[in-house]
Design a protein that fits this description.
rod-shaped
Length: about 140
């Protein structure tokens, strides 16, 4: 049935879009942490060796977030130097719009398929009733 095929196709597109959105959200989150805590990390690196440990202890959470974000981004960027945060955000916004449109199409098709299935069942039910009426009842002749 055409509607069900389209519905499956849209469902696959939605799954693919959701996976990409999840990746983008992870990229954006780590990039934002990286930029947010980068200055604290620079200050940490500028500290004299004797004061670095105390500075690290007082800013442990921020530095840990920065280091984790930096490791994540190094793995994701494959050697690229610039972090395309604006491009990621614009792609995320575009995909969210597409997701909203696909979701609307999916549910419209789902309702349409449901209506068609109900009509089909009703038609089959009516046809069965009609076939039952048309068949003559046979009288058995016991005399031979």
């Amino acid at each position: 049935m055409r509607g069900q095929t389209e519905q499956r196709s849209i469902s696959e597109k939605l799954k693919s879009t959701d996976r990409r959105l999840k990746n983008l959200d992870e990229h954006i989150s780590n990039a934002e942490k990286y930029f947010q805590y980068r200055d604290i990390f620079r200050k940490y690196k500028q500290q004299k060796p004797k004061k670095q440990e105390a500075f690290y202890e007082s800013h442990r959470m921020e530095l840990t977030h920065y280091e984790a974000a930096e490791r994540y981004l190094n793995a994701v960027m494959n050697g690229k130097t610039g972090i395309p945060l604006k491009a990621w955000k614009s792609e995320r916004d575009k995909l969210n719009g597409e997701k909203k449109q696909l979701t609307h199409q999916y549910y419209a098709l789902k309702d349409e398929v449901k209506e068609v299935e109900q009509i089909r069942r009703n038609v089959y039910s009516i046809m069965r009733e009609e076939n039952g009426r048309e068949q003559p009842t046979r009288k058995h002749d016991f005399e031979r």
